[in-house]
Design goal:
Number of helices: 9
Strand content: 15-25%
Largest sheet: 7 strands, mixed
Distance between the termini: 73 Å
Order of helices and strands: HEEEEHEHEHHEEEEEHEHHH
CATH class: Alpha Beta
CATH architecture: 4-Layer Sandwich
Radius of gyration: 21 Å
Number of domains: 1
Number of strands: 12
Helix content: 25-40%
Oligomer: single chain
Strand order of the largest sheet: 1-2-3-4-5-6-7
């Protein structure tokens, strides 16, 4: 059969050629090096020596190359401390190039906020004998779950060619010396970095990082700026406790895992606390009154939060998760 007879149409043939070209452009890390193939990536300086890359809103797809989360770094004078590495190896490679060019420093440390695909798949571009990768003590447990393997298979389909057979998931060699009520502080160059246990509020291996001298906190997915958080099936009470850990030393700047940087963290923390406290108390009241979830949800006055961004998308799911936790807690009494 002639080669071109394998394709039923010219568009199919051209699409195949395009995929082949993308794969051919990849380096051994599995990173597409042609910058114009990736979504625009802007490096923002949000304070002295602090750099942030903000991902796009929406779901991860091949069209956006999985660029839906935030990441950042701090230039210490002796190397970069990076927090998270974005959602594909190609994004991680581009991020690293931008950071090292802007700061004039090489990456020395990478801290992983948690092992969810949109935050750590870029870590492949940061592997090297001169780079220390740090994650939460429970990272091994999450990394070795069947869900991690299944998500990679799903990403290979949904994010091809940015996630493909050459994509390698990397587990941090060093675990942070953290626990509930216990932080770890390490120093590099002119700054001290405090690693804070996120108490498993969003994921079992939640980890936050504070730059002590600058009052900057990299909060991962535990903090959102001016909007309703995606709590899902997490326990609102534990999430509140994690936010209290984050605010032990009130931050001047807070960098979330998604969305805009907060330059007024106290205001945003107060909003999130009010929301989580309201959610938890209202669902506990509904369970105590033997209301079904639908009855409870319809009867609650959500006016204090309904005009916030992400309310329509997140609130009902958040409320249902809180209701289930309230039921579980009621059964323990």
């Amino acid at each position: 059969m002639p080669y071109f007879d394998m394709f039923r149409s010219l568009p199919a043939f051209l699409a195949t050629l395009s995929s082949i070209a993308m794969l051919a452009a990849m380096d051994p890390l599995g990173s597409a090096q042609a910058a114009d193939d990736l979504p625009p990536m802007k490096l923002e300086r949000v304070g002295k020596d602090v750099y942030v890359i903000q991902g796009q809103a929406g779901q991860a797809s091949s069209a956006n190359a999985g660029f839906i989360s935030n990441a950042g770094a701090v230039a210490t004078g002796q190397g970069l401390v990076v927090f998270d590495t974005l959602g594909t190896p190609a994004l991680g490679a581009k991020m690293r190039k931008l950071l090292e060019e802007a700061s004039g420093e090489k990456v020395k440390v990478v801290v992983v906020s948690h092992y969810h695909a949109d935050h750590f798949y870029g870590i492949q571009a940061f592997e090297g004998k001169d780079i220390e990768i740090i994650a939460h003590p429970k990272a091994d447990e999450v990394f070795n779950e069947a869900n991690t393997k299944n998500r990679l298979a799903q990403r290979k389909q949904d994010l091809f060619p940015w996630v493909n057979e050459d994509t390698k998931l990397v587990l941090a060699a060093r675990k942070a010396k953290v626990a509930p009520g216990k932080n770890e502080t390490f120093k590099l160059g002119r700054y001290s970095f405090t690693l804070i246990d996120g108490l498993g509020a969003h994921a079992p291996d939640d980890l936050m990082m504070r730059v002590d001298e600058l009052g900057v906190v990299f909060a991962g997915d535990l903090f959102f700026t001016g909007r309703v958080p995606f709590v899902g099936n997490a326990n609102p009470r534990i999430w509140l406790a994690a936010l209290n850990r984050m605010a032990e030393k009130p931050p001047k700047i807070a960098i979330p895992g998604h969305g805009a940087v907060s330059h007024d963290p106290q205001k945003d923390l107060d909003l999130t606390r009010r929301y989580l406290d309201f959610l938890s108390k209202e669902m506990a009241k509904a369970v105590a009154n033997l209301q079904s979830f639908d009855e409870a949800y319809a009867s609650i006055d959500w006016s204090g939060f309904k005009n916030l961004p992400a309310f329509a998308a997140a609130n009902r799911l958040n409320a249902y998760g809180a209701y289930l936790h309230a039921e579980q807690e009621a059964l323990k009494k």
